[in-house]
Structures are given as structure tokens and as C-alpha cells.
Recover the amino acids of this structure.
């Protein structure tokens, strides 16, 4: 019986995504659909001109469409999610994956429907600006995963 | 008996650091002491002007002294290590921690003596250069942890 309980605990742990950073602040409904949590790690300044943070997306959660004046790099640290550059198909992103979005190109990112996503973002050359937020990603767009 | 074996497995897993990225290439003895493994994640280019990678340091392993023309940001994803900016005491760095080293300032980083370190590095503004390598960190300096 003790054995079975142990086994159950292991399974539960494996299904939980690794947390490296604090969960952070819930993203506003003006810029996110569903539950997404942002932790700022490095604030932009004039020395490093780089902003870094972690976002945890619960299953189904995603950002609005948005763009970055100098582009963005995503580093996926756990889970499974989606990333779409406007005009291209949704790409599935997973633990260990890297995504680049070029400057001034609209994109969105978030968790898959079934599994959450932990991702770091890097915004380089912040002297050009950080982010321009646009409209929400509709369910129709979100569900159009091939 | 089966229970005990399970328990042992759990303990072993907990002591192993989380691996998000492939282990990578062993760092050269010209620039590292001990066993350190580097995986490049983002190569510097003219669009993002940012280099990103992961280094896994085995216990006792550390970089040589070095500097970055535009500075460096470290993101600690697991384990325990040391970071020292020249002229300052060694700081202990841990999972979830962030380190910044200003431009053209000499520093070194690596694992603690007992526990390994997983860390991401971000080198911003790579148009100014990436890294300038200097001499190895002696055992005397490495062991001078308060």
C-alpha cells in the first residue's frame, strides 16, 4: 500500500511542470486569454538593453497578437505550447525549444490545449521599444493546429 | 524490498539536476577548469545581436576569468554555483537566480564544490564582441567562499 502511494506521487510530480522562477503576476485580460503568469527577471536598462522574463501559461492560455520593435527570442523550459507568426502555420513548441520572432512581425504564443507551457522571453535592443499589443487570438485561430 | 528500491531511485532523481537542453560540448581546458559542457542555443546575428546558450558545470568546474564587451546576463536554472566579479567577494548563485556582469568587467562563474550548476547565458549587443578569455581561476580563489 505504501508502495502504491509512492508510485502515485511520482506520477503526479511528473505531470507538474518544473518551476524555476516564482509564478508571478496574472497577465491582464487586455493582453492574454486564459491564465498566464509573468515574472520579470531582467528589466530593460541602458547598459544591457535587454528585457528577460518567464511566462507560465496554463493549458489553453495564450497571448494576444503582438510585435516587438527589435524582435523576440523564446526559450521553452517545460511543457508544450503553440507559436504562430502571422501568415504562417502554428508551430508546436516544447521543452528545450527556441523560437525567434523578427522585428515588427506580429506573433502570438501560449500553451497547448492539454498541457501548460513554461517559457523565458528575451527582448533584445530595448532602446527600440519592447512590445506593441494587438487583438486577442480567437478560438478559431487557436484551434487551427495541424 | 521493491519499496526500498523505489525510494533509492527517487533519491537519485532528486540529486540529478534538471536537463532542459542537450548536455553539449565539453569546454576546452584553455577556458575551463574541470568538466563544463556548453550548448549554443542562439547564435549571434545582425538582427537580434544576442547570443544565448546553456552551460552545465559539474561540481568543482568553473570558467576562466573573462569579460564581455557588452556585458552578460546569467539565468540559473538548477543547482548551486559561484559567481565572482573581480575585486568583489564570491556570490553564491542558485536555481532561479539572475546575475548581471557589466561590460568589460572581469568575472568567472561555475558550480559549487559539492553541487553542479545549470545556467543560461545571454550576451547582448554582440556587435560589440562576445567574450575575451583570460587566465584560469586558481584553487585558492575558487575555495575562498565565505
Amino acid at each position: 500500500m505504501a508502495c502504491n502511494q509512492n508510485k502515485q506521487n511520482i506520477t503526479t510530480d511528473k505531470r507538474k511542470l518544473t518551476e524555476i522562477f516564482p509564478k508571478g503576476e496574472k497577465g491582464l485580460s487586455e493582453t492574454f486569454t486564459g491564465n498566464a503568469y509573468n515574472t520579470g527577471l531582467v528589466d530593460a536598462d541602458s547598459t544591457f538593453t535587454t528585457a528577460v522574463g518567464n511566462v507560465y501559461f496554463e493549458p489553453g492560455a495564450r497571448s494576444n497578437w503582438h510585435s516587438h520593435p527589435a524582435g523576440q527570442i523564446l526559450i521553452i523550459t517545460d511543457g508544450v505550447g503553440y507559436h504562430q507568426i502571422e501568415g504562417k502555420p502554428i508551430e508546436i513548441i516544447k521543452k528545450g525549444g527556441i523560437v525567434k520572432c523578427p522585428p515588427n512581425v506580429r506573433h502570438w504564443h501560449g500553451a497547448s490545449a492539454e498541457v501548460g507551457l513554461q517559457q523565458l522571453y528575451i527582448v533584445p535592443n530595448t532602446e527600440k521599444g519592447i512590445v506593441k499589443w494587438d487583438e486577442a487570438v480567437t478560438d478559431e485561430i487557436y484551434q487551427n493546429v495541424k
Q: What stands out?
A: The CA atoms of residues 33 and 102 of chain A lie 23 Å apart. Chain A touches chain B through 32 residues (CB under 8 Å). Confidence is low (pLDDT under 50) at residues 1-14 of chain A.
